[in-house]
């Protein structure tokens, strides 16, 4: 089975062809990503209208390139998968409409993929991880601990009550005058910094419910920055290192809390999986390697290029759904909001 995946929910336009491997997992035959970073940099964040237009300009070429690199013709595909949300609706419409047009013209099945399910299932593409597993999803818009029990079967154990982790990286970078996108800038500055120079809070540490709160940490960075002003590059590096160390402590502690709750909803986890843009951070990755070693649990960290947004994860989610006969039709709507666990979202205080 070979599927084309299209991703346009945020600021990366991406297209990829993935083939199902007989022994499980998949082969990525091509993985084309075109980042719009330069288009948004001047604004310090993603501008939805600019994003949508940029997707329109490149998506055709990107799909062609993905097919060329995979040495494949459109008629050799078994299906078309396009991310249908959650995300910026203008961009989502570009990718989803492209997917629908291809599916219609080629008479191939269409799968309207939840972008978060793409992140959630990446570890099965790369490592064939069996269900159930604990997923820590940390991206620009989402911070969630989820019991992944099967395709379309997710139980959210915890989430953030305010900012997402990636958002906290982006805001911290902005207030320290570092370039957009913030995550990689903060990580680079932190390499040369002292992680214990500034004492920053670790919000929610020790709480039983595996929720997160990041806005207080970001405020603490701002207060320390104001106190130390004018900032030298040494100060900036130390602030970044101290911030990153606090985030890492929080991620590990909250994951530990989620592991304690996992058994009640899904039995024994086969692994911990960390996914989403923040999972490409090397400090985060090495902290999880240590934690998993100590806890004696398998850890799966998809390679950094499959942690940030990409088309391969959409193609793979398409393959998983097609195998179960889960196909969509041309009425599939773009969905700005689309929780993996709608029950958790409906619970009091559930929306975050
Ligand atoms: O998954 P992703 O590419 O897009 C979303 O679906 O949001 O995640 C993007 C987020 C941004 O907030 C970005 O700053 C953060 O992931 N990020 C990082 C790193 N690379 C990307 N955060 C920390 N360290 C990194 N190396
Ligand atoms: Zn994402």
From TrEMBL:
Cofactor(s) the record lists: Fe(2+)
GO cellular component, one term: cytoplasm
E.C. code: 2.3.1.234
Subcellular location: Cytoplasm
Binding site for substrate: 137-141, 170, 183, 187, 281
Span of domain Gcp-like: 28-316
NCBIfam families for the chain: gcp_kae1 (TIGR00329), T6A_TsaD_YgjD (TIGR03723)
UniProt name for this protein: tRNA N6-adenosine threonylcarbamoyltransferase
């Amino acid at each position: 089975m070979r599927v084309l995946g299209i991703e346009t929910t945020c600021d990366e336009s991406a297209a990829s062809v993935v083939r199902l491997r007989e022994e499980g997992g998949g082969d990525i035959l091509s993985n084309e990503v075109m980042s719009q970073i330069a288009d948004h940099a001047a604004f310090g964040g993603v501008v939805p209208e600019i994003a949508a237009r940029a997707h329109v300009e490149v998506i055709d070429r990107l799909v062609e390139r993905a097919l060329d690199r995979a040495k494949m013709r459109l008629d050799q595909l078994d299906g078309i998968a396009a991310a249908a949300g959650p995300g910026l609706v203008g961009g989502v419409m570009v990718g989803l409409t492209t997917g629908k047009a291809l599916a219609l013209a080629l008479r191939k099945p269409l799968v309207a993929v939840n972008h978060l399910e793409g992140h959630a299932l990446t570890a099965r593409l790369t490592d064939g991880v069996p269900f159930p597993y604990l997923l820590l999803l940390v991206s620009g818009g989402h911070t969630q601990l989820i019991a992944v029990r099967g395709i379309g079967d997710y139980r959210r154990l915890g989430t953030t009550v305010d900012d997402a982790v990636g958002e906290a990286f982006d805001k911290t970078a902005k207030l320290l005058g570092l370039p957009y996108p913030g995550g990689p800038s903060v990580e680079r500055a932190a390499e040369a910094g002292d992680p214990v120079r500034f004492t920053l809070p670790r919000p929610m540490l020790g709480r039983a419910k595996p929720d997160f709160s990041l806005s207080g940490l970001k405020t603490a960075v701002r207060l320390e920055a104001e106190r130390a002003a004018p900032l030298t590059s040494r100060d900036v590096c130390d602030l970044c290192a101290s911030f990153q160390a606090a985030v890492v402590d929080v991620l590990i502690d909250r994951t530990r809390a989620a592991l304690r709750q996992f058994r009640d909803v899904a039995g024994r986890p086969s692994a911990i999986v960390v996914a989403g843009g923040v999972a490409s951070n090397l400090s985060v990755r090495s902290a999880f390697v240590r934690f998993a070693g100590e806890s004696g649990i398998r850890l799966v960290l998809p390679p950094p290029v499959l942690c940030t947004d990409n088309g391969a994860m959409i193609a793979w989610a398409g393959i998983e759904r097609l195998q179960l006969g889960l196909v969509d039709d041309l009425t599939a709507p773009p969905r700005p909001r689309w929780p993996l666990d709608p029950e958790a979202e409906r619970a009091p205080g559930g929306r975050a």
